[in-house]
Amino acid sequence: MAEIRRVEREDVETLFALDQACFRPGIAYSKAELRYFLFHPTGISLVAADGDGIAGFAIAEMRMEHGQPIGHIVTIDVEPARRRQGVGRMLMRAVTERFREAGVARLRLEVAVDNNGAIAFYKELGFALEGRIRGYYLGRLDALVMARAA
Ligand SMILES: CC(C)(COP(=O)(O)OP(=O)(O)OC[C@H]1O[C@@H](n2cnc3c(N)ncnc32)[C@H](O)[C@@H]1OP(=O)(O)O)[C@@H](O)C(=O)NCCC(=O)NCCS
Questions:
Q1: Is residue 85 part of a domain?
Q2: How far is the CA of 4 from the centre of ligand 1 (A)?
Q3: CATH code, domain carrying 99
Q4: Total domains present in the chain
Q5: What are the tens digits of pLDDT across the range 87-102?
Q6: Is 19's C-beta closer than 6 angstroms to any atom of ligand 1?
């Protein structure tokens, strides 16, 4: 079973390759974007790893909205060969625990309207549809906004 730990500088190349494997060009992060999110001071960046290496990672950040802290899920990426084994669920649980400790009461995220696997995953974890952002990805692909209590 994979264990959760904080991201380290040495992980960047592996996480970059994993993100490229998870998302199409234009949606996957550039290395500069990935570094920015991974090491942002208000961020939570966690890796799920075991003897077989890194199975997945999650990036989240805290935002203030109307004076309330919101936990924004930036991305969750699981290695294709290691999906449907509970890694994504484990990462989300770990992120949520850290957000709760920081006083976050609500989680929110954006997901591409055509990303059926991720939408099913988030619904399973209790996220509900809250809105839609036109052209959020590449100026032409809409995002669903999903949210739940932390
Ligand atoms: C979405 C993603 C993170 C899920 O990770 P995962 O480790 O496979 O998820 P889990 O094994 O923890 O799944 C938990 C539950 O979510 C649901 N679920 C997960 N993936 C699903 C899929 N592709 N289709 C339908 N339901 C799914 C299932 O109910 C699953 O439980 P089960 O396997 O016992 O049926 C992974 O598919 C992924 O990395 N996708 C590519 C990157 C991406 O789109 N990330 C989201 C960015 S917004």
A1: yes
A2: 17
A3: 3.40.630.30
A4: 1
A5: 999 999 999 999 999 9
A6: no
Q: Which residue minimizes the CA distance to atom 10 of ligand 1?
A: 86
Q: What percent of the chain has pLDDT over 90?
A: 95
Long-range contacts of 40-43, Cβ-Cβ distance < 8 Å, separation of 24 or more: 43/74
Instruction: Establish if 42 belongs to a structural domain.
Output: yes
pLDDT (tens digit per residue) in 112-144: 999 999 999 999 999 999 999 999 999 999 999
The reported pTM is: 0.96
Q: Residue length, the chain?
A: 150
Atom of ligand 1 nearest to the CA of 112: 48
Q: Is 84 in the pocket of ligand 1 (CB under 6 A)?
A: yes
Q: Cα(83) to centroid of ligand 1, in Å?
A: 6
pLDDT value of position 26? 87
Domain membership of residue 15 (yes or no) is yes
**Does ligand 1 come within 6 angstroms of the Cβ of 118?**
yes
